[in-house]
Amino acid sequence: MITFILRRLISGVVLIVVVTGVTFFLTHAASIPVAHNLLGPTASPAQVAHLNHQLGLDRPVVVQYFSWVAEAVRGNFGSSYFSSQPVGEALADRLPVTLSVVLVSLLITLVISVVLGVLAASKRGPLDFVIQAISTLSFVFPGIIIGIALVFVFSIWLHLLPAVGYTKFQDSPAGWFGSIILPAIVLAIGGIASLSAQIRGSLIDELSRDYVRTLRSRGISERSILYKHALRNASGPAFTTFSLLFISLFGAALFVEKIFALPGYGFYAFTATVQGDLPVMLGVTLFSVILVVIVNLIVDLISGWLNPKARIS
Amino acid sequence: MTSLLSVTDLRLSYPSRGFRAKRPEVLRSVSIDIAPGETLGLVGESGSGKTTLGRAILGLAKPTGGTIVFNDQDITHLSPRERRAIARDVQVVFQDPFTSLNPVLQIGDILSEPIIAQGTSRSDAQKSVGDLLDQVNLPANAAARYPREFSGGQRQRIAIARALALRPKLIVCDEPVSALDLTTQARVLDLLIDIQRQTGVAYLFITHDLSVVRHISHNVAVMFKGELVETGTAAQITEAPEHDYTKSLLLSAPIADPDRQRERREQRRAMKSFVTA
Amino acid sequence: MTTPPVPDVAVPTSKRQGALRRLLRKPLGLVSLTVLVLLVLIAILGPLYGHNPNFSTLKDINVGPGSPGHALGADQFGRDILARLLASLNVSLISGAIGAGVSTILGTVFGLIAGYTGKRTDAVTSWVFSLVMTFPALVLVLVLYPITGGSYQVMMVIFGVFLSPGTFRLVRNLVIVVRNELYVDAARVAGLSTFRILSRHVLYVIRGPLIISVAFLASTAIGVQAGLAFLGLGSTLVPSFGAMTSDAFANIYTAPVQLVWPSLTLALLTGSIVLLGNALRDVLMDVGGVAKAVKTKGRGHTSERDTATPHIEDDAPHGGLLALRNLRVSYTQPDGSERLVVRDVSLDVKIGEVVGLVGESGSGKTQTAFSVLGLLPREAHVEADLLSVGGDAISLSDPAAMRGIRGGVVAYIPQEPMSNLDPSFTIGSQLVEGLSAGMSKREAKATILALLARVGIGDPVRTFKSYPHQISGGMAQRVLIAGAVAGRPKLLIADEPTTALDVTIQAEILDLLRDLQSELGMGVLLVTHNFGVVADLCDRVIVMQAGEIVETGDVRSVFTSPKHSYTRELVGAILDENTVRSDPPPRAAGALTSEGTK
Fold it and tell me: What is the CATH number of domain C19-48+76-284?
């Protein structure tokens, strides 16, 4: 058990090093004229060179990378070239925004998917069709379109919800909810489509297995068979899908943040990228990878617990 | 005596998982001989290693010791190309008629494939298909159909036809009738015997069913947990077995006569049990 | 004795249609394919339209649809919307092709290698791909944006790389399954080279799921490219649905109608691809696809006959524990007709009597047994004039009533031990659950422990706490028997309870069943194809063929003087234990000649 966690942590560290290293070297290879961008087109070469030196950009790449690593390990992620705001601080500000949207979205997805999946698997008939329809629709209309449509309907037309902006929970719970519910719904639609179809499929498979028939032969109730046995056995693959969803939502959050003008980490990453704001880009990448490693670890642990064969050994 | 197939002290262990675990020994110094045109019945239960022995002879499993000599050639470890040359002489019929034929290929393609793999042209190979189908008493129009359109017994015939395609000297039959109904079993067994009489092919007939093995074998070898416990002619083994395990195997298979079955039951219960689970 | 020629199989007269044909017959398939083809044609012919999608002029800003020279109007920069739409279609199609193409090729090549070659290559490749899978793809696409120089094609290549683990995993898992199939073994024995095996057998069999995944990959790639363009990543000179939507979004108060065009066309494109994928899934995943290739048939046996001959019955029907009159079971075929698998079957089981239900595959014996339990799948149509158990008549169409008799009155022993235990629960908890009504948990546990000992399990406590994968097949069957008799049933229905077991274990299980039967005084309906088992356990025999009963009688008379021709044939096919192979092998010499004894 301990060895398992240790092994995952080690591969996690490897992953972090690889990804940040690759990012670092690739962005360097792209030769973004950072100093030039900062100073504007009228800067003289001397000024550019001076700024480059100040920012440490004239050192060899490898040195730059290791010095970043050295600082990062101590918790100092540098500051944005453009705003001079410490990256760590900026992330801390922005993360709650993205997290609010993602977590609420996941909650909606989970609840609705389980309900739909279970009902469709046990009742079949018209519900099957509903799930297939939702699934297809979510592919047909990519999130951005739905997001825009929702903004149009609820904000511009009905004036029910704010079109843009984010209200902190501390300031006003209702306002907070109002500002994140539309983006959360947009993100949830794709998730519901795939997760509910997955749950339905797995459940139908389980319910057709031999052991279910044998359990029925002992007089056990349909309810127990569905919720206690079938769902339990079907949860493994569903859980994997759910975790992949979580990770992908962090990427997808980027889009809703633009549509709904939320000051989240996705949009932060985006602006940094276009500008070549290296410390921010690295900080964001680092954070994403750490997030992925932690989520994967938790997922593996829970999957292992769910599967008796793995649990014993 | 010229032996067609001669296995000497064959050993096989699966690669161990992790250095601590013991390597399970599936075959422990097994030796058998088959003369040309003869049927050797290989009998055992699950875990006896009989299927693994068959697979080792076919090149589907790698022995870790001992030798297999076929037609005076050592075939214990062969490269894929050498294996292809041997394919002309050693073929197989598997147990499961549902999965031993590729479901997306037509029968004609399935039957001509081994011939084409040896280098014959496609058109020449197609000509042989009709003959093969005839040999196993299937109509010629079967060639354009897919496996799922046939019953299990018919599919086994197709598998047998495929095995015959290269006119082998030895066919390893791995439980070929175990998945078939009683009436079909009898027919397929008789077909196999006919083919042996006509072509002189030898069989290594692997099965767990003693009544089947008696019907088709000249000689019988009994395996238990990777070892050979007894060999002899079919008559010897099935009427006067010497080893206790063979005796218990014989007594365990129920016979279709209530009174004699009861006697047999008493006899078996008087013996020690070989069951460990 | 030569085998008589088998009559030609009754096969459907029309040959199986090609996949494309079947696709076109489905309305969904036809429509989506047509729409997609149309869109592709439009994109190819787009440049013929002539108008420059980037040409902007002040005088045409935001003109509405239908204005001269602008069939769909112009955007806030005065650029013709229709021209931009056509160009965007091109961009999206190319994006889809690149994204799906890169992902599929990478995933397939490595999936084939990993699935087919040894464990080590598999471990390494799988590790690499799972590493790639965990990359937060979008973030990395963003971060790598600078080196793409704004080219959407390069971005799609990168994204395709990130999508490839999905394809890799799909292909690898399928290949592993196919690799272990017997027809691949047969191909190896026939001497086929690895390349031939991969291309002819493996690839051909997995093409169904692969094609379907290409459809979904393409639509995902298109969606992502639109999203990235929406964010503003990419050259402003390249029109795309994303860019158009972004512009229209900025313009939402002035001319909301501009949102409609790109949204609708994009939806049409992704929609047709996805629906095509769904239709393809239905068409390709049926017979001949991997789904069927992979699902091995259960241990059921197969026969070559199909029609029954008239029925012979013994004297007056007995009464008692089970009475079944005129049972009929049918299934609806795809063409709408009903296929009758059990026709007017009537039988009786007395209290304490063991009745063997014998037949080959397709005889309907298993269907009959399951009908008494009410455990046929929902697609089955079951009806009977009478079903009476323990003296009480029960309606087959009343699920609650049928459930009521299960466990306590009627119990079931299945054929295949391991697949009939829930892998996620301990043996103990599964068995106790069946007893939970009517006794306390402690009593139930004690009962089960006692039963486990009774059925011959050496360490009941340990088995109670074990999971199914930790016990052997023989033990599992004993556990299932314990579970069946726990409720002290009056009638036991056993479906080939020893077929899946080794012959020495079989004998012990038969002993166990006999002992339990006499101890509990149960009536038993034993479904089997093995006459030895019948001789060992049964008092009476019922012979079925093609859904009908052809003969019944007590065990001795059916064996010694079968009346019906089919019964005679069955009994005749039992391999006589006195027959030993008598003809010598062609060139045998010395010690290896056999001595015939017939």
Answer: 1.10.3720.10
